[in-house]
Design goal:
The complex is a heterodimer of chains A (about 425) and B (about 220).
Chain A (H helix, E strand, L loop, with lengths): L2 H7 L24 H11 L18 E5 L6 E6 L12 H14 L14 H14 L3 E5 L2 H12 L5 E5 L4 H10 L2 E5 L4 H8 L6 E6 L11 H10 L3 E5 L14 H4 L8 E5 L9 E5 L1 H10 L1 H4 L6 H16 L1 H21 L10 E5 L6 H10 L2 E2 L1 E3 L10 E5 L6 H17 L5
Parallel strand pairs in A: 2-11, 4-5, 4-6, 6-7, 7-8
Antiparallel strand pairs in A: 1-2, 3-9, 8-9, 10-13, 12-13
Chain B lengths: L3 E16 H7 L13 E13 L5 E10 L11 E10 L2 H11 L9 E7 L2 E8 L2 E9 L3 E14 L2 E16 L5 E4 L19 E12 L3 E2 L1
Parallel strand pairs in B: 4-8
Antiparallel strand pairs in B: 1-2, 1-11, 2-3, 3-4, 5-6, 6-7, 7-10, 8-9, 9-11, 9-12
Classes of the chains: A alpha/beta (about 425), B mainly beta (about 220).
């Protein structure tokens, strides 16, 4: 029997393949990509991939209604999956502000921000955000993705060099692709490798880091990486998607946490994580924001963020700025979970933030483990290769200030119990 | 023609990041490098310790670029390679591979030494009488597998595809515990050594297994 024929007759397990195997297809027809993926996904979905994109039927509070992707039945689950780190998005003040804006403006912006899509509420929001970030000005984007794509491609050109941490978010990578600059990746959080990669680079250079990395929950080694960046005459962009409103004395982010807020050149953040809303922003000098306004195509050619959402975000921003006790409660919850997971022998990797990966380290079983945990009342997200390295599969937890220690304790016991049953922790 | 079998004691591979500019200089037209990151391709270096073949026992070193596979008719490969330099420890093995598989060859015998330690193996390669490369691969969890890979070849006579089934015990991981040292030797002339990251992002170790080659297909 021929080798390939043998392979065809002995159908491999779905778990031997992943999304990365279906990126390329044969022939001249783009539709050729579809069938191999569909054949595989037919097996993969009921075997665990149903855990992705499950629909919610309630607000993303600490407890949610989730439509089980396998059975189709609604489940009441303790929510460890939604960002909403400060538990603000469903606060009465936020809902009231959004409701009033809906009454005043109707549904959407009905235009690009540079034409007819800018409303008074956008201007107020951008100004208050700039004050919160202690910068001259801010510019708001419809999503965090478009903020990175738009900002990076607005500033960098063909012939320039962009240096990215290897764990950079897809929006940063896509921004670099759109900029047509040479893209060089340095090892995660490794200033020595950045030094090596910067050594022979001429011309305009931009180093991009994230305040907190979304899959491992570890903070940027900012002082060391910034020192190398400056010494080589490069500029730095910090994406504080997972750290704005949380880190630093005033909640401005990881740059403030390290006392380097003024030294970092460009500051970017989002409203979908800590505020539980939507959108992204860049903060900086007036000149910078004027330039980005003119050249960020992802914003220029999109409809502006809805004034309804913007009004809700403005209310959420005011809460985040005026209630530092929310940050204190979040960090108290994080400390509690870290201690309890350590006592139970649950590995949370290198996390030192509110993003906690529960390491399963078994690509073949992570989906079954997640399914078991969901069946016992917890909503959290499995993450497996190629989103993370092979054998580094995990369950990702987002801690919220709205969680209670009682609920977190119950979650720890459920997670540790399942991991013990599966032989993953002691 | 039936399948061709090559049994091996060990086959170790390291996947190393190197610039796509370098990969494109190596690849013929029509083959696309796989990019784990934008602008970064994969240099796959494999060293075999064959203990059973039509031409006896021998060692082999393969320098390849990971490319997009040819997916068709229910055959779903795990991956695909474009080997641009294959070197063997014997003349018989070299002539066999050129004649049977149209593999591009380093035309002199090379030295291949395997140093086996607990949980790791190091392959030391010499070419032109001097050290050329030293690669260490570590193990992780082992499982018995049967995986299909594709190898694309091109020479003056045309373009070819070999379907190759790898069978045996396999360890595969991304712990970044392996290492390569590429030395200043003409053996490495096609890569910019300083731009090859010395730690493999993926390490594969096959042992006590075999490669089963389908008859070569002309493309």
């Amino acid at each position: 029997m021929e080798a390939a024929q043998k392979q065809a007759t002995e159908k491999p397990e779905f778990s031997e393949y992943d999304y990365s195997n279906f990126y390329y297809g044969a022939g001249d027809d783009p539709l050729n990509l579809l069938r191999p993926f569909a054949d595989w996904f037919r097996d993969a979905r009921p075997s665990g991939y149903y855990l992705y994109s499950e629909a919610l039927g309630s607000a993303p509070t600490t407890h949610v209604r989730v439509k089980n992707g396998k059975s189709g039945r609604w489940q009441e689950l303790f929510n460890l999956a939604s960002y909403n780190y400060l538990g603000i998005s469903y606060r009465p003040e936020v809902k009231k502000a959004a409701a009033e804006a809906l009454e005043k403006y109707g549904l959407g912006a009905s235009g690009s921000p540079i034409l007819s899509g800018t409303f008074d509420v956008h201007e107020v929001f951008a100004a208050e955000l700039a004050r919160f970030k202690d910068k001259e000005a801010c510019i708001v984007f419809p999503t965090g993705y478009s903020a990175n794509v738009g900002f990076i491609s607005a500033l960098m050109r063909s012939g320039d060099t962009i240096l990215l941490d290897q764990y950079s978010h897809a929006s940063i990578v896509d921004g670099a692709i759109l900029a047509k600059s040479k893209t060089v990746f340095f090892r995660h959080n490794n200033p020595l490798d950045l030094e090596r990669k910067l050594a022979n680079v001429k011309g305009k250079k931009l180093v991009v880091v994230e305040g907190v990395y979304s899959m491992d929950g570890d903070m940027c080694a900012l002082p060391e990486i910034l020192e190398v960046t400056k010494r080589h005459g490069a500029r730095m962009l910090i994406d504080e998607a997972h750290s704005t409103f949380l880190f630093g004395q005033n909640g401005r982010g990881v740059a403030e946490h390290f006392g380097l807020d003024k030294e970092v050149d460009f500051h970017l953040g989002t409203f979908s994580k800590s505020l539980g809303g939507q959108g992204g922003f860049v903060a900086g000098t007036r000149d910078l924001i004027d330039y980005v306004n003119a050249f960020a195509r992802s914003r220029f050619f999109s409809c502006n963020l809805s004034p309804v959402l913007t009004a809700g975000l403005l209310a959420a921003l005011r809460i985040a700025a005026s209630e530092p006790q929310l940050r204190a409660k979040l960090w108290s919850n994080v400390a509690f979970l870290r201690r309890r997971f350590a006592e139970e022998g649950v590995d949370i990797g290198k996390s030192n933030s509110q993003v906690m990966p529960v390491m399963v380290n078994n690509d073949a079983r992570v989906l079954a483990v997640a399914e078991k945990i969901q069946d016992r009342g917890l909503f959290l997200n499995p993450v497996t290769y190629p989103a993370v390295p092979k054998h580094k599969s995990r369950l990702r937890i987002s801690v919220s200030a709205a969680h209670t220690e009682e609920d977190l304790e119950a979650a720890v016991q459920t997670i540790a119990g399942v991991l013990r049953e599966e032989g993953i922790c002691r | 023609m039936s399948i061709t079998r090559y049994g091996y004691r060990d086959a170790i591979s390291g996947f190393f990041e190197f610039p796509t500019d370098n990969a494109r200089r190596i690849l013929p037209k029509g083959l696309e490098p796989i990019e784990p990151h934008h602008g970064t391709s994969v240099l796959a270096i494999t060293v075999f310790d064959f203990d059973e073949s039509e031409v006896g026992e021998y060692g082999e070193v393969v320098y390849a670029v990971l490319v997009s596979p040819l997916v068709r008719d229910g055959r779903l490969p795990k991956g695909a390679f474009y080997p641009w330099q294959v070197a063997t420890t014997t003349k018989a093995a070299r002539e066999h591979a050129i004649e049977r598989w149209h593999l591009p060859h380093w035309m002199e015998d090379v030295g291949v030494e395997f140093v086996r330690e607990k949980g790791r193996v190091t392959a030391k390669v010499t070419a032109d009488g001097a050290p050329a490369m030293e690669m260490t691969i570590t193990d992780h969890s082992w499982q018995t597998v049967s995986h299909l890979y594709q190898s694309f070849q091109q020479d003056d006579t045309g373009r070819y595809l070999a379907n190759i089934l790898f069978e045996g015990e396999k360890s595969e991981h991304e712990e970044e515990t392996g290492r390569i040292v590429l030395l200043d030797n003409t053996f490495n002339k096609d890569v910019v050594i300083s731009e090859v990251y010395e730690t493999p992002f993926r390490e594969l170790w096959m042992r006590n297994g075999c490669q089963l080659f389908d008859p070569l297909a002309k493309l």
